[in-house]
Amino acid sequence: MPGLKHPRLQSIATAVPDHRISQAEVLAILARARGAALPARLEQILGNSGIDQRYLACEPDYYLEQRSWPDRAACYDRVGRTLAEQVAAEAMDRARMTPADIDAIVMISTTGTMTPSIPSRMIETMGFPSSTRTVPVFGYGCAGGVLGLRLASDLANGGEGQNILLVSLELCSLSYDYSQFDKKNMIATALFADGCAAAVISGRPDCKPGPAFRGFEQKTWPDTRDMMGWEIGQTGFDLVLARDIPTFVARDFAPFCDRFLEEQGLAMADLSEPACHPGGGRVVDALENYFAPEIAAITATRSVLERYGNMSSPTVLFVLEHLLRGKPDRPVLLTALGPGFTSALAILDPRED
Protein backbone atom coordinates (compact mmCIF):
# COMPACT_ATOMS: atom_id res chain seq x y z
CA MET A 1 0.00 0.00 0.00
CA PRO A 2 1.55 3.36 -1.00
CA GLY A 3 1.86 6.30 1.36
CA LEU A 4 -0.69 9.09 1.54
CA LYS A 5 -0.95 11.28 -1.55
CA HIS A 6 -0.84 14.32 0.72
CA PRO A 7 1.30 13.73 3.84
CA ARG A 8 -0.12 15.06 7.08
CA LEU A 9 1.40 17.43 9.57
CA GLN A 10 1.19 15.68 12.94
CA SER A 11 2.76 18.32 15.17
CA ILE A 12 4.99 21.40 15.50
CA ALA A 13 7.21 22.42 18.42
CA THR A 14 9.39 25.52 18.83
CA ALA A 15 12.07 26.75 21.22
CA VAL A 16 14.51 29.62 21.67
CA PRO A 17 17.72 30.02 23.70
CA ASP A 18 17.74 31.55 27.17
CA HIS A 19 19.22 34.98 26.45
CA ARG A 20 16.56 37.57 25.60
CA ILE A 21 17.60 40.98 24.30
CA SER A 22 15.43 43.95 23.37
CA GLN A 23 15.94 45.93 20.18
CA ALA A 24 16.79 49.01 22.26
CA GLU A 25 19.55 47.03 23.95
CA VAL A 26 20.87 45.90 20.57
CA LEU A 27 21.17 49.51 19.37
CA ALA A 28 22.95 50.49 22.58
CA ILE A 29 25.41 47.60 22.20
CA LEU A 30 26.09 48.55 18.58
CA ALA A 31 26.86 52.13 19.62
CA ARG A 32 29.09 50.86 22.43
CA ALA A 33 30.99 48.53 20.11
CA ARG A 34 31.33 51.28 17.50
CA GLY A 35 32.64 53.73 20.11
CA ALA A 36 30.24 56.44 18.93
CA ALA A 37 26.55 57.13 18.56
CA LEU A 38 24.87 55.57 15.55
CA PRO A 39 24.15 57.91 12.64
CA ALA A 40 20.58 59.16 12.93
CA ARG A 41 19.46 57.66 9.61
CA LEU A 42 20.95 54.26 10.43
CA GLU A 43 19.43 54.28 13.91
CA GLN A 44 16.04 55.00 12.33
CA ILE A 45 16.45 52.08 9.88
CA LEU A 46 17.49 49.67 12.63
CA GLY A 47 14.75 50.88 14.96
CA ASN A 48 12.06 50.32 12.30
CA SER A 49 12.89 46.65 11.76
CA GLY A 50 9.58 45.46 13.20
CA ILE A 51 11.42 43.65 16.02
CA ASP A 52 10.87 44.31 19.71
CA GLN A 53 12.99 41.51 21.18
CA ARG A 54 15.02 38.44 20.19
CA TYR A 55 16.77 35.47 21.75
CA LEU A 56 20.50 34.74 21.46
CA ALA A 57 22.59 31.64 22.02
CA CYS A 58 25.00 33.48 24.34
CA GLU A 59 25.14 36.48 26.66
CA PRO A 60 25.41 39.78 24.74
CA ASP A 61 28.98 40.41 25.92
CA TYR A 62 30.06 37.21 24.14
CA TYR A 63 29.47 38.91 20.81
CA LEU A 64 31.79 41.83 21.65
CA GLU A 65 34.81 39.56 21.97
CA GLN A 66 37.12 38.18 19.31
CA ARG A 67 35.93 34.71 18.36
CA SER A 68 37.43 31.92 16.30
CA TRP A 69 35.87 29.17 14.20
CA PRO A 70 36.35 26.70 17.11
CA ASP A 71 34.62 29.14 19.51
CA ARG A 72 31.58 29.43 17.25
CA ALA A 73 31.52 25.68 16.56
CA ALA A 74 31.56 24.93 20.29
CA CYS A 75 28.58 27.23 20.86
CA TYR A 76 26.69 25.65 17.95
CA ASP A 77 27.37 22.21 19.43
CA ARG A 78 26.39 23.14 22.98
CA VAL A 79 23.33 25.32 22.38
CA GLY A 80 22.21 23.87 19.05
CA ARG A 81 22.09 20.26 20.16
CA THR A 82 20.17 21.20 23.32
CA LEU A 83 17.52 23.08 21.33
CA ALA A 84 17.27 20.38 18.65
CA GLU A 85 16.71 17.62 21.18
CA GLN A 86 14.19 19.75 23.09
CA VAL A 87 11.97 20.48 20.09
CA ALA A 88 12.34 16.95 18.70
CA ALA A 89 11.12 15.43 21.97
CA GLU A 90 8.22 17.88 22.20
CA ALA A 91 7.15 17.39 18.57
CA MET A 92 7.13 13.61 18.97
CA ASP A 93 5.18 13.88 22.21
CA ARG A 94 2.56 16.11 20.56
CA ALA A 95 2.31 13.64 17.67
CA ARG A 96 1.91 10.82 20.22
CA MET A 97 5.02 9.13 18.88
CA THR A 98 8.29 7.83 20.30
CA PRO A 99 11.72 7.66 18.64
CA ALA A 100 10.88 4.08 17.61
CA ASP A 101 8.08 5.46 15.37
CA ILE A 102 10.37 7.76 13.36
CA ASP A 103 11.78 6.50 10.06
CA ALA A 104 14.02 9.47 9.21
CA ILE A 105 15.29 12.72 10.75
CA VAL A 106 15.70 15.69 8.39
CA MET A 107 17.89 18.48 9.78
CA ILE A 108 17.88 21.97 8.23
CA SER A 109 20.64 24.35 9.32
CA THR A 110 22.81 26.93 7.57
CA THR A 111 24.43 28.71 10.53
CA GLY A 112 26.59 25.82 11.67
CA THR A 113 27.59 22.29 10.79
CA MET A 114 28.88 19.19 12.54
CA THR A 115 30.20 15.81 11.46
CA PRO A 116 28.77 13.48 12.68
CA SER A 117 25.63 15.56 12.21
CA ILE A 118 23.24 16.53 14.99
CA PRO A 119 20.65 13.95 13.77
CA SER A 120 23.31 11.22 13.89
CA ARG A 121 24.13 12.16 17.47
CA MET A 122 20.42 12.27 18.36
CA ILE A 123 20.12 8.57 17.50
CA GLU A 124 22.29 7.72 20.50
CA THR A 125 21.26 10.48 22.91
CA MET A 126 17.50 10.19 22.32
CA GLY A 127 17.14 6.47 21.71
CA PHE A 128 16.18 6.38 18.02
CA PRO A 129 16.63 2.98 16.35
CA SER A 130 20.08 2.55 14.83
CA SER A 131 18.40 2.11 11.43
CA THR A 132 16.86 5.62 11.51
CA ARG A 133 17.85 7.55 8.38
CA THR A 134 19.49 10.94 8.88
CA VAL A 135 19.31 13.69 6.27
CA PRO A 136 21.34 16.77 7.29
CA VAL A 137 20.81 19.66 4.85
CA PHE A 138 23.04 22.76 4.71
CA GLY A 139 22.53 25.86 2.57
CA TYR A 140 18.78 26.53 2.39
CA GLY A 141 19.03 29.61 4.63
CA CYS A 142 15.80 31.54 5.19
CA ALA A 143 13.95 29.36 2.66
CA GLY A 144 14.79 26.25 4.68
CA GLY A 145 11.57 26.03 6.68
CA VAL A 146 9.37 25.55 3.61
CA LEU A 147 11.99 23.61 1.63
CA GLY A 148 12.49 21.35 4.64
CA LEU A 149 8.76 20.64 4.82
CA ARG A 150 8.82 19.74 1.14
CA LEU A 151 11.73 17.33 1.59
CA ALA A 152 10.10 15.78 4.66
CA SER A 153 6.81 15.39 2.77
CA ASP A 154 8.56 13.69 -0.15
CA LEU A 155 10.26 11.27 2.23
CA ALA A 156 6.99 10.67 4.11
CA ASN A 157 5.45 9.37 0.88
CA GLY A 158 8.23 6.84 0.36
CA GLY A 159 7.43 3.14 0.36
CA GLU A 160 4.23 2.38 2.24
CA GLY A 161 4.45 5.70 4.06
CA GLN A 162 6.92 6.96 6.67
CA ASN A 163 7.05 9.16 9.74
CA ILE A 164 9.55 11.98 9.29
CA LEU A 165 10.94 14.22 12.02
CA LEU A 166 11.98 17.62 10.64
CA VAL A 167 14.29 19.78 12.76
CA SER A 168 15.15 23.35 11.72
CA LEU A 169 17.93 24.95 13.77
CA GLU A 170 19.60 28.32 13.25
CA LEU A 171 21.98 30.23 15.51
CA CYS A 172 22.27 33.32 13.34
CA SER A 173 24.01 35.29 16.10
CA LEU A 174 27.17 33.23 15.57
CA SER A 175 27.73 35.24 12.39
CA TYR A 176 27.65 38.61 14.18
CA ASP A 177 30.93 40.48 13.76
CA TYR A 178 31.06 43.81 15.56
CA SER A 179 34.52 44.49 14.14
CA GLN A 180 32.76 45.28 10.85
CA PHE A 181 30.59 48.37 10.96
CA ASP A 182 29.35 48.65 7.40
CA LYS A 183 25.62 49.15 6.89
CA LYS A 184 25.03 45.55 5.79
CA ASN A 185 26.48 44.02 8.94
CA MET A 186 24.73 46.45 11.26
CA ILE A 187 21.36 45.79 9.61
CA ALA A 188 22.00 42.04 9.88
CA THR A 189 22.81 42.43 13.57
CA ALA A 190 19.52 44.25 14.07
CA LEU A 191 17.48 41.57 12.25
CA PHE A 192 18.77 38.06 12.82
CA ALA A 193 18.20 35.88 15.86
CA ASP A 194 18.39 32.31 17.13
CA GLY A 195 15.70 29.64 17.32
CA CYS A 196 14.72 26.06 16.59
CA ALA A 197 11.58 24.26 15.44
CA ALA A 198 10.57 20.68 14.77
CA ALA A 199 7.67 19.04 12.98
CA VAL A 200 6.47 15.49 12.47
CA ILE A 201 5.10 14.70 9.00
CA SER A 202 3.50 11.34 8.26
CA GLY A 203 2.68 9.56 5.04
CA ARG A 204 1.40 6.43 6.75
CA PRO A 205 -2.20 5.52 5.93
CA ASP A 206 -2.93 4.92 9.62
CA CYS A 207 -1.56 8.26 10.88
CA LYS A 208 -3.80 10.46 12.98
CA PRO A 209 -5.93 13.06 11.16
CA GLY A 210 -4.26 16.40 10.62
CA PRO A 211 -3.54 19.20 8.14
CA ALA A 212 -2.35 17.90 4.77
CA PHE A 213 0.29 19.32 2.42
CA ARG A 214 -1.38 19.47 -0.98
CA GLY A 215 1.34 21.20 -3.00
CA PHE A 216 4.82 22.73 -3.07
CA GLU A 217 6.78 24.85 -5.51
CA GLN A 218 10.10 26.65 -5.64
CA LYS A 219 12.02 28.84 -8.05
CA THR A 220 15.61 30.05 -8.17
CA TRP A 221 16.20 33.21 -10.21
CA PRO A 222 19.38 33.57 -12.32
CA ASP A 223 22.00 36.22 -11.51
CA THR A 224 20.73 36.73 -7.96
CA ARG A 225 23.40 35.00 -5.87
CA ASP A 226 24.52 38.34 -4.40
CA MET A 227 21.14 38.87 -2.73
CA MET A 228 21.74 36.55 0.23
CA GLY A 229 24.18 33.91 1.41
CA TRP A 230 27.49 33.24 3.15
CA GLU A 231 31.10 33.99 2.37
CA ILE A 232 33.83 32.21 4.31
CA GLY A 233 35.51 34.77 6.58
CA GLN A 234 38.47 34.62 8.93
CA THR A 235 36.44 33.74 12.02
CA GLY A 236 33.26 32.20 10.59
CA PHE A 237 30.53 32.78 8.05
CA ASP A 238 30.22 36.36 6.77
CA LEU A 239 26.77 37.42 5.60
CA VAL A 240 26.02 38.36 2.00
CA LEU A 241 23.01 40.70 1.92
CA ALA A 242 23.11 43.01 -1.03
CA ARG A 243 19.87 43.73 -2.86
CA ASP A 244 16.50 45.26 -2.13
CA ILE A 245 14.33 42.27 -1.20
CA PRO A 246 11.05 44.26 -0.79
CA THR A 247 11.35 45.35 -4.44
CA PHE A 248 12.00 41.73 -5.40
CA VAL A 249 8.76 40.69 -3.65
CA ALA A 250 6.67 43.03 -5.79
CA ARG A 251 8.51 42.48 -9.07
CA ASP A 252 9.43 38.78 -9.05
CA PHE A 253 7.83 36.92 -6.15
CA ALA A 254 4.27 38.18 -6.74
CA PRO A 255 3.81 36.78 -10.29
CA PHE A 256 5.48 33.51 -9.27
CA CYS A 257 3.08 33.11 -6.35
CA ASP A 258 0.12 34.07 -8.57
CA ARG A 259 0.97 31.21 -10.94
CA PHE A 260 1.36 28.75 -8.09
CA LEU A 261 -2.05 29.60 -6.64
CA GLU A 262 -3.65 29.33 -10.08
CA GLU A 263 -2.09 25.87 -10.56
CA GLN A 264 -3.50 24.84 -7.18
CA GLY A 265 -6.96 26.04 -8.23
CA LEU A 266 -6.96 28.76 -5.58
CA ALA A 267 -7.63 32.48 -5.53
CA MET A 268 -6.33 34.83 -2.86
CA ALA A 269 -9.81 35.06 -1.38
CA ASP A 270 -9.85 31.28 -0.84
CA LEU A 271 -6.95 31.43 1.64
CA SER A 272 -6.66 31.78 5.38
CA GLU A 273 -3.99 34.13 6.69
CA PRO A 274 -0.66 33.03 5.13
CA ALA A 275 2.36 31.82 7.10
CA CYS A 276 5.29 33.82 5.75
CA HIS A 277 8.95 33.92 6.59
CA PRO A 278 9.08 37.61 7.61
CA GLY A 279 12.62 38.64 6.64
CA GLY A 280 12.28 42.10 8.14
CA GLY A 281 9.69 44.81 8.63
CA ARG A 282 9.90 46.14 5.07
CA VAL A 283 9.61 42.63 3.63
CA VAL A 284 6.44 42.08 5.69
CA ASP A 285 5.06 45.39 4.34
CA ALA A 286 5.77 44.24 0.77
CA LEU A 287 4.07 40.87 1.39
CA GLU A 288 1.01 42.57 2.90
CA ASN A 289 0.78 44.85 -0.14
CA TYR A 290 0.82 41.76 -2.35
CA PHE A 291 -1.91 39.95 -0.42
CA ALA A 292 -4.19 43.02 -0.09
CA PRO A 293 -7.05 43.64 -0.29
CA GLU A 294 -8.30 40.02 -0.11
CA ILE A 295 -6.11 39.36 2.93
CA ALA A 296 -5.99 42.45 5.10
CA ALA A 297 -2.91 41.62 7.18
CA ILE A 298 -0.41 38.90 8.04
CA THR A 299 -0.71 39.40 11.77
CA ALA A 300 0.95 36.16 12.85
CA THR A 301 4.00 36.87 10.69
CA ARG A 302 4.35 40.35 12.20
CA SER A 303 3.88 39.00 15.72
CA VAL A 304 6.61 36.37 15.35
CA LEU A 305 9.00 38.93 13.85
CA GLU A 306 8.28 41.31 16.72
CA ARG A 307 8.79 38.69 19.45
CA TYR A 308 11.59 36.58 17.97
CA GLY A 309 13.27 38.45 15.10
CA ASN A 310 14.39 36.75 11.90
CA MET A 311 15.58 33.28 12.95
CA SER A 312 16.11 32.22 9.33
CA SER A 313 14.71 28.75 8.48
CA PRO A 314 12.63 27.96 11.61
CA THR A 315 10.79 31.29 11.58
CA VAL A 316 8.01 30.19 9.21
CA LEU A 317 7.36 27.18 11.46
CA PHE A 318 6.91 29.54 14.41
CA VAL A 319 4.36 31.46 12.31
CA LEU A 320 2.57 28.27 11.21
CA GLU A 321 2.38 27.02 14.80
CA HIS A 322 0.85 30.38 15.79
CA LEU A 323 -1.75 30.21 13.00
CA LEU A 324 -2.77 26.59 13.61
CA ARG A 325 -3.66 27.43 17.21
CA GLY A 326 -6.52 29.48 15.73
CA LYS A 327 -7.81 26.42 13.80
CA PRO A 328 -8.05 27.97 10.30
CA ASP A 329 -10.75 26.47 8.08
CA ARG A 330 -9.28 27.42 4.70
CA PRO A 331 -5.97 26.55 3.00
CA VAL A 332 -2.84 28.16 4.42
CA LEU A 333 -0.18 29.46 2.02
CA LEU A 334 3.42 29.17 3.28
CA THR A 335 6.06 31.43 1.75
CA ALA A 336 9.79 31.93 2.21
CA LEU A 337 12.66 33.62 0.37
CA GLY A 338 16.27 32.54 0.72
CA PRO A 339 19.70 32.14 -0.88
CA GLY A 340 19.79 31.33 -4.55
CA PHE A 341 17.87 33.68 -4.72
CA THR A 342 15.05 31.19 -4.13
CA SER A 343 11.37 31.34 -3.33
CA ALA A 344 9.64 28.38 -1.67
CA LEU A 345 5.86 27.96 -1.49
CA ALA A 346 3.49 25.42 0.02
CA ILE A 347 -0.23 24.91 0.54
CA LEU A 348 -1.41 23.29 3.77
CA ASP A 349 -5.02 22.19 3.90
CA PRO A 350 -6.06 22.40 7.58
CA ARG A 351 -9.17 20.24 7.21
CA GLU A 352 -8.82 17.14 9.34
CA ASP A 353 -10.50 14.33 7.44
UniProtKB/TrEMBL annotation:
Domain Chalcone/stilbene synthase C-terminal stretches = 218-324
Q: Name one GO cellular component term.
A: membrane
Q: GO molecular function, one example?
A: acyltransferase activity, transferring groups other than amino-acyl groups
Q: Which UniProt keywords apply?
A: Acyltransferase, Transferase
State what protein this is by name. Alkylresorcinol/alkylpyrone synthase
Active site, renumbered:
C142 (acyl-thioester intermediate)
Which Pfam families does UniProt cross-reference here?
Answer: Chal_sti_synt_C (PF02797), FAE1_CUT1_RppA (PF08392)
UniProt lists the family membership as follows: Belongs to the thiolase-like superfamily. Chalcone/stilbene synthases family.
The record's annotation in SUPFAM superfamilies points to: Thiolase-like (SSF53901)
Tell me if Transferase is a UniProt keyword of this record: yes
Residue ranges of the FAE domain?
42-206
Species in which this protein is naturally found: Parasphingorhabdus marina DSM 22363
Q: What is the lineage of its organism?
A: Bacteria, Pseudomonadati, Pseudomonadota, Alphaproteobacteria, Sphingomonadales
Any one GO biological process: polyketide biosynthetic process
List, alphabetically, the InterPro entries matched: Chalcone/stilbene_synt_C, FAE1_typ3_polyketide_synth, Polyketide_synthase_type-III, Thiolase-like
Gene3D superfamilies assigned to the protein according to its UniProt record, in alphabetical order: 3.40.47.10
